[in-house]
Design a protein that fits this description.
mainly alpha; 0% strand; globular
Length: 382
């Protein structure tokens, strides 16, 4: 076994030869987009060592530690304000430990479900990774480059100056943001999409582990969206610069990943992190996502963007709450009781999809059930 995993393994050489012959791994002199080239590098690395956890992940120890440091600064500067309890109400903390790790948040049943869904997400990650970055992104890049060559001829081979690099990064972010918004919009506005997305919105408390709280069926969709946006922009600028933009892309994606990972932690964290209102009209603050998770009707289907508020303003889905506005998290009571424990979150969406496809109306249990909204769910955490 050790021999087969070593760099000199004949088995690895055979697989590498197969990848080259099948076209999965590019070996020609044609212009390659950054994701095709990155995929080549990753395929090589995956045979040389186990794929480590990404340092850009929002749940890496480095970024989690930085998140808590930022939250500690907020505690000092706000004099204990800005932390919310399990009901979504602001609760001034008496001490720093209560501010960072309130017991009612981290012992809540919803937080335990987060962990279970996170572990499942990590287990499925190689599949989504292979589908998005390993297959779809290189395919789109090659065809984008071929399309530009067919329409406009040979690459102009523009020098990638700092200004051009920044422009490339901006275009990439806007494309990913647009795809995310419309994917998210359809998750809220279609029956099947909402049946699946309820898993994420069934979180009754917000922790950094809430971000990957999704049904495993949705994994490919969220993975493909950014891959499509980045691959198309990568293909366009690979043609503009005549290739050789892999390092630029890695820097752009790396910067974006780090910023979003930190931002993403506060999007799903009980400590509110808001921007000035004038800035929130253009950029999504983490606190705006707190509002998005609220079960109050006035907050429904609001703040669907990832980075910018542009699409929310265009579609009328923006909601800028007051600084410490109450945002009780979770679903309406009749839905929450069907999406509370881990098993519910895995099985109920499948049942819902089958019901929708059969054209049957939604029926809720007639018997009285305990109120499982965040306001009344604390005794479930024992």
């Amino acid at each position: 076994m050790a021999q087969e995993l070593s760099p000199e393994s004949p088995f690895k050489e055979e697989v590498q030869k197969y990848l080259e012959e099948s076209g999965v791994k590019e070996t020609t002199d044609e212009i390659l987009g950054p994701f095709s080239e990155i995929t080549n590098q990753i395929l090589e690395a995956m045979w040389n060592a186990l794929l480590p956890g990404s340092p850009f992940s929002s749940l890496s120890w480095e970024l989690l530690t930085f998140t808590f440091i930022c939250a500690a600064v907020f505690w000092f500067s706000r004099k204990g304000r800005g932390s919310k309890d399990s009901t979504g109400r602001e609760r001034p903390a008496k001490n720093l430990l209560q501010y960072l790790f309130p017991k009612d948040i981290y012992t809540h049943q919803s937080a335990r479900v987060d962990i279970g869904l996170y572990l499942l997400d990590r287990g499925m990650f190689p599949i989504w990774f292979a589908l998005s970055l390993g297959a779809v992104a290189p395919f789109l890049e090659r065809n984008t480059i071929a399309g530009f060559e067919a329409m406009f001829g040979a690459s102009p081979a523009i020098e990638p100056t700092v200004a051009w690099r920044l422009f490339y990064g901006l275009v990439s972010i806007l494309m990913v943001d647009a795809i995310f918004y419309w994917t998210h919009y359809m998750m809220h506005k279609t029956q099947i999409g909402w049946a699946l997305h309820k898993v994420h919105h069934s979180a009754q408390v917000l922790t950094p582990w809430t971000r990957p709280r999704e049904h495993f069926i949705v994994g490919p969709l969220w993975a493909l969206g950014p891959a499509i946006g980045l691959a198309i922009s990568g293909g366009i600028f690979a043609w503009v610069f005549n290739g050789n933009i892999t390092q630029i892309t890695i820097v752009n994606v790396g910067i974006f990943s780090v910023l979003y990972a930190l931002n993403g932690n506060f999007r799903h964290y009980h400590v509110s992190f808001r921007y000035p209102r004038s800035l929130e009209l253009w950029l999504q603050s983490p606190g705006m996502h707190h509002t998005h998770h609220s079960y109050l009707e006035k907050h429904w289907d609001s703040n669907l963007g990832l980075v910018t508020s542009i699409w929310d303003r265009m579609m009328g889905t923006i909601y800028i709450a007051d600084k410490y506005e109450e945002t009780p998290w979770g679903l309406a009571e009749k839905d929450q009781r069907e999406y509370t424990i881990l098993k519910d979150n895995l099985v109920t969406p499948v049942k819902e999809i089958c019901r929708i496809l059969r054209g049957r109306p939604k029926e809720y249990p007639a018997q009285s059930s305990p109120d499982l909204t965040p306001r009344n769910s604390t005794d479930l955490t024992a």
